[in-house]
Amino acid sequence: MNVIFLGPPGAGKGTQAVRVCERLGIPQISTGDILRAAMKAETPVGLEAKSYVEKGLLVPDSVVINIVRDRLQQDDCKNGYILDGFPRTVAQAEALSAFADIQAVVDIEVADDVLVNRLSGRRVCPACGATYHTANLAGREDCEKCGAKLIRRKDDEPETVLSRLTVYHDQTAPLIAYYTEKGILHAIDGTQPMEECTKAVLAVLDADK
Ligand code: AMP
Predict the structure, then answer these.
(1) What pLDDT shows up at residue 129?
(2) What angle do CA 166, 6, 173 make, to 5 degrees?
(3) For position 177, which CATH number holds?
């Protein structure tokens, strides 16, 4: 099954994608993760992406479209995949339709005030990728899983969070109407507890049997 996870930054797309992918045995393809890895490795794509990502702006369509086109050709995508964070513009969705057959789009909905709180309090482990919120850390500064010192993503700084939300409403939210029109959009309440949210996603994908 080929699925898109749509939703604003901080809605829990990544967390839910990991859980659903594990359950379905298909890969999670996160353009944000791919871009961050390229930035860390200072590849040409990473160097180009850096200034956009750090300001909370979208990387040019052509760059991300090429990344996803190449990634979907790999063997592990044969039995399906979840696209997490792509497409983010109607142009990306149009390009995707030329090389992928998408069966379902899961739109994880969360209000802006909740998102600002979630993103500003988010801490990530630079070593293993685990994600936390300051509200649950009780002052801890290291990763429970691997012990590395937790960091705040540069694009989770409060002012960048606001520009990411503006970008989402201007450029990505139109995809809700785009995929509703195609009859494959499923809206999920992203404020429910994590496990409930996963159950709801599996149910709309008809994978909860
Ligand atoms: P994410 O981890 O999905 O929140 O993505 C982090 C950042 O990577 C975004 O704020 C963008 O700067 C960039 N990015 C990720 N996916 C895309 C995409 N599909 N199109 C353009 N930029 C993207």
Answers:
(1) 86
(2) 35
(3) 3.40.50.300
Closest atom of ligand 1 to 60 CA is 21
Is 50 an annotated catalytic residue?
A: no
List the catalytic residue out of 13, 19, 118, 123.
13
Mutate to test the pocket of ligand 1, among 53, 153, 163 (most ligand atoms within 8 A of CB): 53
Instruction: State whether the Cα torsion 15-66-151-157 is positive or negative.
Output: negative
H or E element at residue 6:
strand 2-6
Within 6 A (CB) of ligand 1 lie 9, 31-32, 35, 52-53, 56-59, 64, 85-88, 92, 155, 164
How far is ligand 1, taken at its centre, from the CA of residue 2, in Å?
Answer: 20
Q: Give the position of tokens 């290291």.
A: 142
140 an active-site residue? no
Residue 60 lies inside a defined structural domain of this protein: no
Which residues span the domain enclosing 158? 2-26+79-207
Q: What is the pLDDT of residues 95-141, one digit of tens each?
A: 999 999 999 999 999 999 999 999 999 999 999 988 899 999 999 99
Structural domain count of the chain: 1
* Nearby residues of 172 by Cβ (< 8 Å), 6 or more positions away: 6, 8, 88, 89
Residue 63 lies in a domain: no
Determine, yes or no, domain membership for 36: no
Tell me: the pLDDT tens digits for 61-80?
Answer: 999 999 999 999 999 999 99
Q: How far is ligand 1, taken at its centre, from the CA of residue 209, in Å? A: 33
C-alpha to C-alpha distance for 129 and 106, rounded to whole angstroms: 23
Domain assignment present for residue 115? The answer is: yes
